[in-house]
Amino acid sequence: MVLLTAREYEVTDRMDYTRVAPDAVHAMYALQRYTQDSGLEHSLLELVKLRSSQLNGCAYCLDMHSKDARAGGETEQRIYVLSAWREAPFYTPRERAALAWTEAVTLIPGGASDELYASVREHFNEKELVDLTMAIITINGWNRLAIALGADVGSYQPQQPAPAGAQATGSDHD
Fold first, then answer.
1. How far apart are CA 87 and CA 18, in angstroms?
2. Which domains does the chain have, with CATH numbers?
């Protein structure tokens, strides 16, 4: 077995894929905007993004969404314990359903059983479930881009809240 040193394993920006394929990134941004505007709770979406990024091992997205979650009022405790959400009492039944669905959609070989689907439907109507699934698909796509093409882990800074009456502009991916 070959062990890699930290330097050999480090992934940094390999290319500026936003410059190389702007239409593809524009399509990802459009999907991201859709999920952000879907009506699902912001805090729920951040938990989903964090959990999927944990499962995929995406350091850039974990850094981003832990910062965004904290900036949005999420507690440190819930962020730290997220990988063991089943054993922790800190998550609502709706959040638990979303996290279980996130794992099933992210770890697709296990699939989404009929029992899980029925359980999730107790907490999400049809439109919400489609929107939740699209949010999971979106973060999985961003994870794969960041892991495969590189990302400057640690560089992300959450957007500051816009002054009252101003329109916020999103420049980072998810």
1. 39
2. 23-149 (1.20.1290.10)
